[in-house]
């Protein structure tokens, strides 16, 4: 661990009268009855708190759902029933399990019990033996749900922090892989791991993330998506500045390119930063395909993004203000299709876009089999009924369906949601000001992206600032020998250091 990490951990543990959670230290009662009563009061007399009197002098306390019962019976109870040791130090030194320590603070004792620790109390001693045997119940490893791919690894993260760390270490068998642990949330006390490869990740990025995690004061933390909003550069922006991924191969690929990773206990999504705007539209499968195929897929993906955002606004602007740009052969079918539609194009487009969003949201919230049926049948029925009722035109149905289909090509779910949202203000501006409104929103969008940063690095890299060396793995994917391994933002920081 480097000097910055040592200073951060030292600042967290400083102070003789308070523990790491900021609570005042209170010594454990030496009498067994008083100790048991104090633990019960601290935990508000929970039903799952187990108190067992092993011998006349030894008693143990634990939460029955948080510890491994087989380890308890085989390595702790059996030893305590047969031992003649009457000192906490001797018991802790002879227990044949790795995670054993002594504690005198009752707050630390309670917090440890909530993390899968068996508390061993000897009557007449304020020192407590803490034996860590947490239960390892978790969801089994399965294929990623939101980042599926045909070629490549089919294993995704689950909600267990230890399992996720072991997956990462299987991909990166490197002693330079650093893992710093934090506890966040005054109520939840959630474990968070900061991972990076020492010597590859930029010190500025590591120190920035470490400082933001250390200074974070929140009541609870349940998921990594909430943590991203708390530590990213601009939480008011619609665009995410950190990447959420459920793929360990993509996460490790980011660490190897100089990024900093965060894994949250209880969440199946890991965080990568810094990230550029272009990386949200790249898939890990691109590196597994031949470079001409991967380049074609990426170009197709970016074309689909343009279609998803601008086709509907172009339709609205053309029919409202700019009939002259429509080719003559297409103008007649458009006029016939809209002859019975009583609404202006802007209302017609927003109405259909809202229907598509309702169908998408309903399909996502319903069970899988029912959701697929609702999406297909609902789209066909509502589309046909809307055309027959004269509410919308056939051509707009095709355009809306094409835009919805194109939006699904975005590999990242968070960025896909952004594309869904920004279509609506662009449609409204196109309905009021035509092509001028579209260009106005495009300029506003571009200025906003130019102002965004990710851990202080440029969001639109490698195009702004322009770096030709990084273009081979941006919109196109050239052969591997032409691609630099180090991430764009880390390389920019390295170049600044050399200039200084």
TrEMBL record:
Q: Please state the protein's primary subcellular location.
A: membrane
Q: Which UniProt keywords apply?
A: Membrane, Transmembrane, Transmembrane helix
Looking at the record, which segments are called Disordered? Answer: 1-27
- Record's compositionally biased regions (Polar residues): 9-27
Location of this chain's protein in the cell: Cell membrane; Membrane
Regions crossing the membrane: 299-319, 395-414, 426-450
Highest taxon listed in the record's lineage: Bacteria
The cross-references to Pfam families, in alphabetical order and at most eight, read: GerA
- Gene Ontology cellular component annotations, sorted alphabetically: plasma membrane
Q: Does the keyword Transmembrane apply?
A: yes
A Gene Ontology biological process annotation?
spore germination
The topology of this chain with respect to the membrane is: Multi-pass membrane protein
Q: Which family does it belong to?
A: Belongs to the GerABKA family.
| Protein's name in the database | Spore germination protein
């Amino acid at each position: 661990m480097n000097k910055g990490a040592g200073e951060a951990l030292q600042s967290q543990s400083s102070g003789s009268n308070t523990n790491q959670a900021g609570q005042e230290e209170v010594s454990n009662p030496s009498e067994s009855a008083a100790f048991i009563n104090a633990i019960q009061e601290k935990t508000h007399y929970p039903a799952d708190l187990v108190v067992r009197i092993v011998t006349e002098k030894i008693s143990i306390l634990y939460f029955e759902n948080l510890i491994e019962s087989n380890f308890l019976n085989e390595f702790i109870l059996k030893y305590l029933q047969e031992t003649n040791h009457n000192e906490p130090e001797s018991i802790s030194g002879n227990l044949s399990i790795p995670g054993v320590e002594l504690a005198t603070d009752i707050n630390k004792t309670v917090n440890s019990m909530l993390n899968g620790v068996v508390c061993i109390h000897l009557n007449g001693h304020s020192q407590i033996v803490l034996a860590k045997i947490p239960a390892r119940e978790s969801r089994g490893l399965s294929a990623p749900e939101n980042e599926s791919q045909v070629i490549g690894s089919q294993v995704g993260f689950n909600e267990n922090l230890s399992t996720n760390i072991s997956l990462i270490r299987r991909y990166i068998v490197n002693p330079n892989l650093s893992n710093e642990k934090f506890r966040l949330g005054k109520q939840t006390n959630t474990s968070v791991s900061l991972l990076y490869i020492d010597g590859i990740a930029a010190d500025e990025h590591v120190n920035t993330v470490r400082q933001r995690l250390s200074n974070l004061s929140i009541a609870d933390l349940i998921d990594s998506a909430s943590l991203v909003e708390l530590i990213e550069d601009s939480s008011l922006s619609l665009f995410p500045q950190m990447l959420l991924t459920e793929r360990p191969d993509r996460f490790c690929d980011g660490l190897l390119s100089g990024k900093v990773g965060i894994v949250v206990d209880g969440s199946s999504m890991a965080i990568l930063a810094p990230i550029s705007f272009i990386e949200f539209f790249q898939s890990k499968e691109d590196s597994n395909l031949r470079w001409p195929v991967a380049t074609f897929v990426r170009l197709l993906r970016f074309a689909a993004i343009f279609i998803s955002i601008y086709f509907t606004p172009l339709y609205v602007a053309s029919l409202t203000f700019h009939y002259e740009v429509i080719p003559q052969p297409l103008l007649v079918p458009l006029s016939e299709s809209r002859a019975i539609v009583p609404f202006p194009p802007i209302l017609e487009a927003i109405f259909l876009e809202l229907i598509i969003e309702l169908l998408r949201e309903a399909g996502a919230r319903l069970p899988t089999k029912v959701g697929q049926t609702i999406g297909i049948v609902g789209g066909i029925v509502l589309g046909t009924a809307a055309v027959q009722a004269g509410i919308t035109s056939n051509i707009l149905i095709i355009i809306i369906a094409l835009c919805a289909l194109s939006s699904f090509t975005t590999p990242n779910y968070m960025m896909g949601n952004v594309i869904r949202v920004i279509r609506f203000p662009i449609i409204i501006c196109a309905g009021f000001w035509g092509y001028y409104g579209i260009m106005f929103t495009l300029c506003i969008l571009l200025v906003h992206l130019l102002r965004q940063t990710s851990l202080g690095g440029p969001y639109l890299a490698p195009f702004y600032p322009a770096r030709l060396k990084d273009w081979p793995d941006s919109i196109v994917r050239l052969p591997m020998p032409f691609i630099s391994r180090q991430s764009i933002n880390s390389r920019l920081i390295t170049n600044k250091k050399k200039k200084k």
